Amino acid sequence: MTDVNAKMIGKESGARPGRLRLILLVLLSVIALGGGLVAAVGPARIMELAGLGGGDDPDHAEQSGAGEDHETAPEEIRSALAADPSRMAMPFEEIIVNITATSAAGRQTSRFLKLDLALIYDSAAPDAARLQERQVYMRDSFQDYLRTLDERDLRGSLGLADLKSELLRRARAVSGGEAPREILVSDMIVQ
């Protein structure tokens, strides 16, 4: 009976290193996978996906295009107009379009861009009277352009400056004159 017990103990102790190796291999694989995921998308995004916050990362705020320095509050629009009485503001209804984005894995996905803006124009210009009747066409032209954008096109202050200049160029083209002076963005959210 003791020989049988010794053989069983020998089998159990021989089987343990195999199970231990398998457990260590699985654990090491999970740690490597987690490290690779963190390296690919960043720790703040991992925390955000896990529901543990991570929304305070300044790099992430810049990528989403919703940084505080990119927004112009409506009060600022009114104060800018008060300095020059010949300038008027023409607000647009919010624009929501799909834009493309590239995931960390290189796959193209779709995101939403929400944009609230106002067109500042010179009311003394000869073509200013046409702006109100051309507003629908300007909005359509803005939407056509916005749908062609990629999420990377909206990053940082350069992305915002390019967006404003292209929208202003389109407003001038649709209105047929130089009355449009500036585009003010009060809200820009990429989601």
Write out key terms for the chains shown.
single chain, alpha+beta, Tetrahydropterin Synthase, Chain A
Structural account:
The structure is a single chain. The protein folds into 2 domains: 2-41; 68-190, Tetrahydropterin Synthase, Chain A (2-Layer Sandwich). The chain is 52% helix and 20% strand. The protein has 6 helices and 4 strands, in the order ααααβββααβ. Strands 1, 2, 3 and 4 form a 4-stranded antiparallel β-sheet that branches. β2 (95-102) and β3 (108-122) form a beta hairpin. The longest helix is centred in the first third of the chain and has 40 residues, at 2-41.
Provide a quick synopsis of the model.
With 191 residues, the protein is α+β, with helices and mostly antiparallel strands. The protein has helices at 2-41, 43-49, 58-64, 74-82, 131-147, 156-175, and strands at 87-91, 95-102, 108-122, 180-190.
- Describe the largest sheet: 4 strands, antiparallel
Mean pLDDT figure: 78
Total count of helical runs of at least 4 residues: 6
Report the strand count.
4
The top level CATH class name of the largest domain: Alpha Beta
Please give the alpha-carbon distance between the first and last residues.
71 Å
Cα gyration radius (Å): 29 Å
**In one word, what is the shape?**
elongated
Q: Supply the number of structural domains.
A: 2
**Beta-strand share of residues:** 15-25%
| H/E topology pattern | HHHHEEEHHE
Which percent bin holds the helix content? Answer: 40-55%
Second rung of CATH, namely the architecture of the largest domain:
2-Layer Sandwich
